[in-house]
Amino acid sequence: MIDAIIIDDEQAAQLTLMSFLQMHCPTVNVIGTANGVEEGLKLLANKSADVVFLDIKMNDGTGFDLLKRLPQINFNLIFTTAYDEYALKAFKYSAIDYLLKPIDPMELIEAVAKIRQEKNENTSKSVHSMFELYQKNKFDKIAIPSVDEFYFVHINEIVRCEASSNYTLIYLSSGKKIVAPKTLKEFEALLANEGFFRVHQSHLINLDHIQQFMKTKNKIRMVDGSEVEVSRRKKTIFVELINMRKL
């Protein structure tokens, strides 16, 4: 069983989440609920949970305020929130899970499934990264999960991403390679607005790290010496992009 705590100042939201968990996630056992920051801190001091569902905006403060006052974060964390552009971006870049209100049961099932896979010790690092990104409103780093840890790297260090079944190989400018248990599609969604382009079904590249486009071979040589094929379907858009960037 997965022991869970819900911290939300809306009783209706608490009841809805508990109902969804009972119906769709029978392995989750709600061991306590709290109506705000102060109640949440008392509850967490007395009970040990595997996961905390935490609202952002509450009557006596924010979920961020609560996390900052904890001596340690030794549980999985899932934020439950209404739309906040900068907060959501900080969550995504820090690999912190979240559920948008009103909660979609399918998204809840997916979030709970991840709890079984991820280790609690990663949460503190992710929360620290999230605070840094959110407060500075400068999204220049990304959390990349590997099999047993997270790597926090600057986006401009990523040369290219390559699909490998349900994994993605991340190649950095330092020569390091990270094997991430996420699909290339997930990284494409995250990095599309950061100067990355999917030139092939198997390749997502950083346009700033292109060294040469070999038109006759229909291939790109990256700064790390690797060669990446450009699919026929993507060639026209790619050529337009590099002309715009004057590569």
Description:
This protein has 247 residues and is an alpha/beta fold. It has 2 domains: 2-136, Response regulator (Rossmann fold, 3-Layer(aba) Sandwich); 141-244, OB fold (Dihydrolipoamide Acetyltransferase, E2P), CATH 2.40.50. The protein is built from 8 helices and 17 strands. It has helices at 11-24, 37-46, 63-68, 85-94, 105-115, 121-136, 184-191, 232-244, and strands at 2-7, 28-34, 51-55, 57-58, 61-62, 76-81, 97-100, 141-145, 150-154, 158-164, 167-172, 177-180, 196-200, 203-206, 210-214, 219-222, 227-229. The strands form 5 sheets. The protein has a 5-stranded parallel β-sheet, sandwiched between helices. Helix 4 runs antiparallel to helix 6 (121-136).
What's the structural blueprint in terms of helices and strands?
Blueprint: E1 2-7, H1 11-24, E2 28-34, H2 37-46, E3 51-55, E4 57-58, E5 61-62, H3 63-68, E6 76-81, H4 85-94, E7 97-100, H5 105-115, H6 121-136, E8 141-145, E9 150-154, E10 158-164, E11 167-172, E12 177-180, H7 184-191, E13 196-200, E14 203-206, E15 210-214, E16 219-222, E17 227-229, H8 232-244
Parallel strand pairs: 1-2, 1-3, 3-6, 6-7
Antiparallel strand pairs: 4-5, 8-9, 10-11, 10-14, 11-12, 13-14, 15-16, 16-17
Helix pairs in contact: 4-6
- The class by helix and strand makeup works out as alpha/beta
Count every helix, treating DSSP H or I runs of 4 or more residues as helices: 8
Largest sheet: 5 strands, parallel
Lateral arrangement of strands in the main beta sheet: 2-1-3-6-7
> Spans with pLDDT under 50 lasting ≥5 residues?
none
In the CATH hierarchy, what is the superfamily of the largest domain? Response regulator
What amount of the residues lies in strands?
25-35%
